[in-house]
Each structure stands twice: as structure tokens, then as C-alpha cells.
Amino acid sequence: MSSKTFTCLKTLTRLTPTRPNTWTLSLIPPTLLHDVETFTPSLPSSSYILGGSPLGTFSHSGFLITEADEMYHTQWENFEGVHEVRLSPKFKRAKVVEVLVHDWDTFEVGDDLFIVEGEIDSNID
Question: Record's superkingdom (predicted)?
Fold first, then answer.
């Protein structure tokens, strides 16, 4: 078992061990999510996926500053987007055991998102 937390900058995720072969997964900055509306998994939770593969996508919306001037006049624009969450390539294979977020209105980057169960590839740093 890997007993330390590791961060994957390629997927902007942090994985924290909870028990043998099990981690909690969270997103890290600079991931930018506005108001999350839904999460759609790529596969059923009982399905294993390979490292680097998509776990699912977030739909989110919000407002972006499009222009501002020295007089503090700001123009805003509505924004809608999707954000794909990928499994760290450090895994040989893994599956999502549980989605930990039950209220997407309160979800923020850094919150625990999933419990992931799988095998780490010890040949990948």
C-alpha cells in the first residue's frame, strides 16, 4: 500500500490513502469550476478503468470578468462549460467505489470527490 498522499499535476488531482489500495480523490488548483450542476460518470462505478482514463465530466456555469477599466467598471459574461476528471496515470487500473459529494451546490475544488480503489504502477513516478 502506498501510505502517502500523492498529487498528479497531469490530471490536477490529489489522492490520499484511506486503507490498502484505496484513496480519496480531490481536485487541486488551478482547476477552475464555477457552480457545478452535474457530474456524469464515464462508466458504471463497478467498472475498472486504466490509468489516465476519464472518470467523468462536470457541467458547470457561472460568470467571468470580460473587461474592466481603471474606474472599476466591470463587464461580466455568462459562462457554461464542462470539465473532464481523469484518473492519475500512476494507476494500472482503478474504479470509483463511491461518489462522496451529495450536494453539488456546495462542492469546491479541494473537497474529497471520490473513493477510488485500484492498483498503483510502481514503475511510474
Answer: Eukaryota
What digits encode the pLDDT tens for the residues 32-88?
Answer: 788 888 888 888 877 899 999 999 898 988 887 777 777 777 888 888 889 899 999
Using alpha carbons, list the distances in angstroms from residue 123 to 5, 48, 89. Answer: 17, 20, 11
Residue 38 grid cell: 452535474
| Strand order across the 54-68 sheet | 35-41, 54-68, 74-86
> Which run of H or of E encompasses 112?
strand 112-120
Amino acid at 7: T
**Phi, psi for 107 (deg, rounded to 5):** -70, 135
Cis peptide before 30 (omega within 30 of 0): yes
- Please state the domain extents for the chain: 6-120
Residue 3: strand, helix, or coil:
coil
Instruction: Tell me how crowded residue 29 is: count the other CB atoms within 10 A of its CB.
Output: 8
